[in-house]
């Protein structure tokens, strides 16, 4: 396919920024999906060691970016099921 090989990039150097932007977008999307899969309290990977994983994130900040408040210092209104 024309325009996808190294030979075509040498002929059309104006395509290099397009390749860089697409690659940066793909890397960013993979990073964000990996972060959501590993850091989000809605995703459980190992239920046998921690049957209630949402209790682990009760006082943690798990949002990606929050300039207004620090969630690690606020108390959660979630009920305690261990009692």
Structural class: mainly alpha
Question: Helicity, in percent?
Answer: 25-40%
Main sheet attributes: strand count, strand direction, barrel closure: none
Radius of gyration: 22 Å
Q: Return residue spans where pLDDT drops below 50 for at least 5 consecutive residues.
A: none
β-sheet strand percentage: under 5%
The rounded distance between the terminal residues' Cα atoms is: 64 Å
Please provide the ordered H/E string of secondary-structure elements. HH
Gross morphology is elongated
Number of helices: 2
Number of strands: 0
Instruction: Estimate the mean pLDDT confidence.
Output: 79
Question: Which features characterize this protein?
Answer:
single chain; 83 residues; mainly alpha; 0% strand; elongated
Q: Can you describe this structure?
A:
Helices cover 36% and strands 0% of the residues. The protein has 83 residues and is an all-alpha fold.
List strands and helices in order, with pairings.
Layout lengths: L5 H6 L4 H24 L44
């Amino acid at each position: 396919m024309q325009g996808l090989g190294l030979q075509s990039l040498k002929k059309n150097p104006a395509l290099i920024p397009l390749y860089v932007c697409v690659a940066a977008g793909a890397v960013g999307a993979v990073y964000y999906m990996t972060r959501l899969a590993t850091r989000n309290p809605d995703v459980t990977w190992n239920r046998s060691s921690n049957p209630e994983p949402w209790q682990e994130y009760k006082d943690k900040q798990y949002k990606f970016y929050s300039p207004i408040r620090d969630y690690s210092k606020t108390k959660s209104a979630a009920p305690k099921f261990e009692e």
